[in-house]
């Protein structure tokens, strides 16, 4: 028999758990960091509002292109983009966590994907020379980087003139970046905003590096 005391105790436990969850989310938001490898199950869940197909619609990857993925994790989007740039294109999948890079490398080996290069690297200091890529993308990643402006500056640096950048964001990610904030910060780093699709709480936005004016 369930007593009133039991019901009150369960209700209190639920409230305390909810408050603990809110506190954890606030602490995580105030201290940007990537999803730990031990919690990778969450980044493998379906993402219907920021799907693989919608990413490709906005990014428009083309055969033969060299594309950078920042914060690849376990490769939720990687294989789809890699397939779009075959046969001669390449995706460089960068992640700051070595276990994520190792996990992705193992998955790629199992699938036989040979046009993806898993790379350990920090978005604030990308290990590539200027003008290295035709396009780049990062999904649910920008807000996890402690210095978003520096990461956007690095992406602008490694993209070729005219290169495309797609950023995906979705709630309830505690590091969610609004479209308005993204546009302001990206334009400060030299990007030109082009378009966005989705809702205020779940979207892809595309920007580009202005074409070179020096005739090169």
UniProtKB/TrEMBL annotation:
Transmembrane segments: none annotated. GO terms for molecular function: S-adenosylmethionine-dependent methyltransferase activity. Residues 68-167 form the Methyltransferase type domain. GO terms for biological process: methylation. CDD domains: AdoMet_MTases (cd02440). It comes from the Archaea. Keywords: Methyltransferase, Transferase. It holds the Pfam family Methyltransf_11. InterPro entries: Methyltransf_11 (IPR013216), Methyltransf_Superfamily (IPR050508), SAM-dependent_MTases_sf (IPR029063). This is Methyltransferase type 11. It comes from Natrinema limicola JCM 13563.
């Amino acid at each position: 028999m369930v007593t009133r005391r039991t019901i009150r105790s369960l209700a209190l436990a639920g409230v305390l758990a909810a408050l603990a969850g809110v506190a954890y989310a606030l602490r995580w938001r105030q201290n940007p960091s990537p999803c730990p490898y031990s919690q990778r199950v969450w980044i493998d869940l379906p993402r219907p509002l920021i799907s693989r197909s919608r990413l490709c619609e906005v990014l428009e990857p083309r055969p033969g292109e060299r594309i950078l993925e920042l914060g690849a994790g376990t490769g939720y989007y990687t294989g789809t983009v890699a397939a779009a740039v075959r046969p001669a294109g390449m995706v460089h999948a960068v992640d700051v966590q070595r276990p994520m890079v190792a996990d992705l490398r193992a998955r790629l080996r199992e699938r036989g994907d040979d046009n993806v290069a898993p790379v350990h690297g920090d978005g604030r200091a990308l290990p590539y020379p200027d003008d290295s890529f035709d396009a780049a993308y990062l999904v649910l990643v920008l807000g996890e980087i402690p210095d978003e402006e520096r990461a956007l500056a690095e992406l602008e640096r490694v993209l070729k003139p005219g290169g495309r950048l797609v950023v995906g964001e979705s709630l309830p990610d505690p590091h969610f970046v609004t479209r308005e904030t993204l546009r302001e910060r990206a334009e400060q780093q030299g990007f030109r905003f082009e378009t966005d699709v989705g809702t205020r709480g779940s979207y892809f936005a595309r920007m580009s590096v202005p074409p070179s004016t020096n005739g090169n």
